[in-house]
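Predict structure. Input: NAD(FAD)-utilizing dehydrogenase, 393 residues.
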Amino acid sequence: MEQFDVLVIGAGAAGMMCAIEAGKRGRSVLVVDHAKAPGEKIRISGGGRCNFTNIHTAPANFLSANPKFCVSALRRYTPKDFISLVQKHAIAFHEKTLGQLFCDGSAKQIVTMLLTEMEAARCELRLETGVDRIARIDGGFELALSSGANVRCQSLVVACGGKSIPKMGATGFGYEIARQLRVGLVETRPALVPLTFEVRALERLVPLSGVALDAVVAHGKTKFQEGMLFTHRGLSGPSILQISSYWREGDEIRVDMAPGVDALAALKAARTATPKRAVSTVMASFLPQRVAQIVSDDEGAQGNIADCSDKVLGRLAAAVNAWTFKPVGSEGYRTAEVTLGGVDTNDLDSRTMQAKDVPGLYFIGEVVDVTGWLGGFNFQWAWASGWSAGQAV
Ligand code: FDA
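Output follows.
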């Protein structure tokens, strides 16, 4: 029977950070992961450059049934702390937009950095190793690993992420552990995910597939202004991924496809100044050409702008500044960047991530019901929750 102070399930962002911190405190640490390589989601993140944090991180950038839960960890381990670590390893980075920090080179540098730190903290990593059984014992836990080894630990850290991208090994195993050990769960759903249209709407919009534009996308009072992309299934792009975390089946979404342009005023002015111009040409001054064409066709405004009544211009303007529709669904966990919901934060201590009713059991990272916006917030949560547990295990 092998014995460790701390056993971490999952060598992702949160698990590696927790292991490093626990190892630095002199704890003996074993990290197991069923994947062939550690930190696979880090490697593919940010288009291969890893958007590893956001300098504007604040609790308001996170969704959770208990919005205050993330405050303590985010305060204890900040973007500045992670930036110091990145600088210590001489990894060059830049701010792309909106406080989002990316590696200049490759996301692999972040994985290497974490592995180097784990080695320095004398953490042991076993890959291609799953967990077959977990039992509570006096003073800790006993685990049967898929390698055949039986391991005992005082602290068990569940860092196996959410359900997004099953192709990359996401299993939902963390939720099973929570169920087994009677820790509460908040219903999960795919988030930061493209939204899809029903067949009839798709037929109409299919010619737009591949067109991108800047848009304000709103769900109720929540709004994001970022890029939007028409796809062959519906809509994607940062603004749509952001709003997908708030959207529920049956809800409407409102899109302003020309932010900062009062389309009605622009159309009326064009009718006076250039009456012989085609409606779609006028619309193309503030919309991509293909979108301008489809919107004009949809409203039956195919002639010159001079032929359009105020009523028609009003309809055209609404289609531009307040296009309202009901997505039929999302692309699901297959492409979702994260999982909304998860381990109920009411059952966890916000300072340590320890389960209130199961001493020695910790949940960190995406498996917990804390989900960040797009833009480096999810990694900052993984680092911060991992760091916090690392001080306590
Ligand atoms: P993570 O999923 O990273 O790690 C979990 C680990 O547990 C994995 O190594 C997995 O193999 C292992 N595991 C799972 N089940 C197991 C089992 N049964 N037994 C053993 N091991 C098991 N965020 C961000 O802030 N900036 C970004 O740029 C991006 N980009 C991005 C791109 C794409 C394509 C995706 C899918 C996601 C992102 N994200 C992101 C989100 C980010 O990747 C995510 O929030 C973190 O990786 C979560 O870290 P965790 O450590 O909690 O889980």
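The chain has two domains: 2-189+337-390, 195-330.
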